[in-house]
Amino acid sequence: MISFYKKKVALVTGSAGFIGYHLCRLLLEEKWHVIGLDCLSNYYDVNLKKRRESMLLEYENYRSIHKEIQTPNILHDIFEAEKPNLVVHLAAQAGVRYSIENPRSYLESNIVGTFELLEASKRFPPQHLLIASSSSVYGANTSIPYKEIDKTDNQISFYASTKKTTENIAHYYSHLFELPITIFRFFTVYGPWGRPDMAMFGFTKAILSGEKIDVFNHGNMKRDFTYIDDLVQGIRLIADKIPLLENEACYREDSKSSVAPFRVVNIGNSKPEKLENLIIALEDALKVKAIKNFVPMQPGDVYATWADISLMESLTGFKPRTNLNEGVKKFVAWYLREYGGNN
Ligand SMILES: NC(=O)c1ccc[n+]([C@@H]2O[C@H](COP(=O)([O-])OP(=O)(O)OC[C@H]3O[C@@H](n4cnc5c(N)ncnc54)[C@H](O)[C@@H]3O)[C@@H](O)[C@H]2O)c1
To answer: pLDDT tens-digit profile of 280-327?
Structure first.
């Protein structure tokens, strides 16, 4: 892959997380020097984070730092010492439901943490800063597929509100300090080394132990499930598409700001699947029938997510390759290796 970077030094926040781990591996294989920053928060199984990190530490071009990003001066000092030219910001308090219970952790990690990152980037500008946002910022929008240029003013969870807030704050920094920033909005990412708080993991665990699974909104929900390898390939491709201040001749519905080197892109599979299809794929892969408990919609959840990925495709040629059945098989194979059939 042609690189547009002067040197290959990357800072990845949230490096022991699900997406961070996979992205770090890809960068390390491309011989980037990677600094991984993660506080190993206890939101879910810390051992899983440590296992991911231990695999990254096998690369000699990897270094890990365990700190909270919102701690004043931490990021400033890392930027000053390392001067990363690619920064991928994935550290966040994730999860829609938990944001009802513990909103302060979202305020601190997502808003204050991103503010600290932007302040450090202002002092020691990377060539490109990429920041993770979420499909949940489309909130109460009913027009699908979601396009980056759609209005995103009506979030319905605190998690989504913090993600939208960071998008707005980032635009200001990009505008005033000419910082090249790409925001990516992810759509229900899954795969090996995935998150225990997400449905695919929880369903698998419950099905194997013969427990009931809660099927929200009676199964009448759709998600644009995105396989992890497709997602990190997408991140890598867009990392080379550094937004410019001047208006670029580009795709008709580009989200590129007219006053800043700033763009928002969706990275999804663009094939929404019914929750029911996920359960069928899991039953097939596990060769066990699920016991379903149909329950109403959860507060903060949306009925459907569906990424319009034409902007991403026009900028990078991105095409997701993994369909739900194949991706679920790979997830299940990993789960069985990691946790065995009985839990
Ligand atoms: N996985 C998805 O489906 C999905 C969908 C949309 C958006 N996202 C976004 O993508 C990013 C990565 O998500 P993920 O699925 O890998 O989640 P994850 O929880 O597995 O990873 C996040 C990592 O950040 C770390 N972290 C949290 N708060 C921190 C802090 N204050 N300081 C330092 N480290 C901190 C955690 O310990 C964790 O390892 C997040 O920003 C998330 O909001 C994920």
So the answer is: 999 999 999 999 999 988 887 888 899 999 999 999 999 999 999 999
State the first-to-last Cα distance of the chain, in angstroms, to the nearest integer: 42
Q: What is the pLDDT of residues 73-91, one digit of tens each?
A: 999 999 999 999 999 999 9
Answer yes or no: pTM beyond 0.90. Answer: yes
Q: How many domains does the chain have?
A: 1
Q: Is residue 296 part of a domain?
A: no
* Of 11, 21, 22, 39, best ligand 1 pocket probe by most atoms within 8 Å of the beta carbon: 39
Cβ of 113 less than 6 Å from ligand 1 = yes
* CB contact set of 156 (below 8 Å; sequence gap of 6+): 139, 140, 300, 302
Look-up of token digits 């009931």: 212
Query: Could you report the per-residue pLDDT of 231-280, keeping only the tens digit for each?
Result: 999 999 999 999 998 877 567 789 999 999 999 999 999 999 999 999 99
Q: Which residues constitute the domain of residue 50?
A: 9-187+227-269+308-320
Ligand 1 in contact with 222 (CB < 6 A)? no
Cα angle vertex 229, ends 233, 164, to 5°? 70
329 occurs within a structural domain: no
Q: Domain holding 253: CATH number?
A: 3.40.50.720
Residue 332 lies in a domain: no
